[in-house]
Amino acid sequence: MSHYLTQVTQIWDTLQLTWALGHYTDSWSHNTYLLISVWSWLSPNLSLFRHLSTSSNNTIHLIHGERNFQETIPEIHEYFQSKSQSPQISYYITLSRENHPEAKTWYVQEHIPEILQKTWTDVSCFICGLPKMVDEVRPLLESLWVVKENINFEKY
């Protein structure tokens, strides 16, 4: 549960809800996946990760961004840390507002080239988050030779 919902909101506050605004489907013809998310928009990628990690043929790279380490959910962070012990799975957390020994610093899009250079262009990418981040990551992936049809996204 987010810090905003548990610590900031009060009884009778009005919340604005937004539905998914993108395309989060795939042909599932790949064996390599890049999952990119920020803040609470990790949920779709968490479900996708759980599905994809059931096959030992899949290679999965997850990049997730938060503002600071305090906002990460310890159980989820530990879950991905334990899963990334497998050579087919890598997990990167980025923090935009602080340095931390367990995280990369700045926005997720800053680290995509480094991660993609280790791997491939025949990859299926899933991006979930703020429209600004999604709109920056999509052309970045294309400039790194990811085929446009392999870029799936949701904007919230």
In short:
The chain has 156 residues and is an alpha/beta fold. The chain is 29% helix and 22% strand.
Topology:
Layout (H helix, E strand, L loop, with lengths): L2 H6 L23 E7 L3 H11 L6 E8 L7 H10 L5 E7 L8 E2 L6 H6 L6 E6 L1 H13 L7 E5 L1
Report on this structure:
The protein is 29% helix and 22% strand. The chain is an alpha/beta fold and 156 residues long. It has one domain (20-117, 128-144): Nucleotide-binding domain of ferredoxin-NADP reductase (FNR) module (Rossmann fold). A 6-stranded parallel β-sheet has the order 4-3-2-1-5-6, with helices on both faces. The mean pLDDT is 81.
Summarize this structure as a short list of keywords or feature phrases.
22% strand, six-stranded parallel sheet, Rossmann fold, 156 residues, alpha/beta
Structural class by sheet pairing and helices: alpha/beta
The global form is globular
Number of strands: 6
What are the secondary-structure elements, in order, as H or E?
HEHEHEEHEHE
State Rg.
16 Å
CATH C-level: Alpha Beta
| Terminus-to-terminus distance | 17 Å
Give the name of the CATH architecture.
3-Layer(aba) Sandwich
- Beta-strand content: 15-25%
CATH superfamily: Nucleotide-binding domain of ferredoxin-NADP reductase (FNR) module
How many distinct folded domains?
Answer: 1
* Unreliable residue runs: none
CATH topology: Rossmann fold
Largest sheet: 6 strands, parallel
Please count the helical segments: 5
